[in-house]
């Protein structure tokens, strides 16, 4: 099949599916100007994950870690959701059972108005007491940009607060994991803009396939997931999703 035929075939499946689960990664936010992690321009080319995105890194140098997160918050605060976010948000309002599991911590899916977002790796816009002091909630919203103090303090114990994200070596919140796993029972599972190398997120695809879902990928390049999906479409998420929406959306006459 040509790329155009594959897109049309996927559009037909999307139009017919009543239970859709989408997993997204950094590629979905690339068109909003947010750098991805891997690849030539990726953040992990310029920064080392173990110095910035681990509990050990935070313990060693909370200021350095926070400066990196504060920079990312500033970048995202200036960004806008792109067409990929918009199309997924439209599906979340139209498809009877729709779940969006995102590895992104930028909040752009929520800003686009997406319903039923599972934030697999947490949020840049939440913080938590690093000492988990008994009076503090597990996490709380904080959208201050720029931060008044680096690192910000826990208002309850005065100790350092940490970003409300999942770092390497940390488990996924059990409630979040359960929400993602229950969404694997779907007709169509779509993975978009993720290199599919970070587990357990990358393992969701196999779970959906085992449950009988039709599986598809939209990504700029071939990934670890490409050989495993029923259809892999090479292209930019914002272009391919726009094309699909033109075929299946209200203007396309379906749903
Ligand atoms: P990656 O940077 O690993 O992968 C992004 C993918 O998006 C790559 O395969 C790119 O080819 C693709 N891509 C880039 N621009 C695109 C576009 N416009 N349209 C479609 N695809 C595009 O990011 P993630 O897979 O999200 O975790 O990374 C997973 C996790 O690793 C992140 O959540 C983060 C990171 O380390 C933690 O920090 C715990």
What fraction strand?
15-25%
Q: Which secondary-structure class do the elements indicate? A: alpha/beta
Distinct ligand kinds = 2'-O-acetyl adenosine-5-diphosphoribose
Question: So, CATH architecture of the largest domain?
Answer: 3-Layer(aba) Sandwich
Q: Can you tell me the CATH superfamily of the largest domain?
A: TPP-binding domain
What is the straight-line distance between the termini? 25 Å
Helix content: 25-40%
How many strand segments? 9
Rg, nearest Å: 19 Å
Spatial order of the strands in the main sheet? Answer: 3-2-1-7-8-9
Number of helices: 10
In N-to-C order, the SSE pattern is HEHHHHHEHEEEEHEHEEH
Unreliable stretches covering 5 or more consecutive residues: none
Question: Can you tell me the CATH topology of the largest domain?
Answer: Rossmann fold
Topology overview:
Layout: H1 3-16, E1 19-24, H2 43-46, H3 49-52, H4 55-60, H5 62-78, H6 83-94, E2 97-102, H7 108-111, E3 117-119, E4 122-129, E5 140-141, E6 161-165, H8 174-182, E7 188-192, H9 204-210, E8 214-219, E9 231-234, H10 237-248
Parallel strand pairs: 1-2, 1-7, 2-3, 7-8, 8-9
Antiparallel strand pairs: 4-5, 4-6
Helix pairs in contact: 1-10, 6-10
The protein binds 2'-O-acetyl adenosine-5-diphosphoribose.
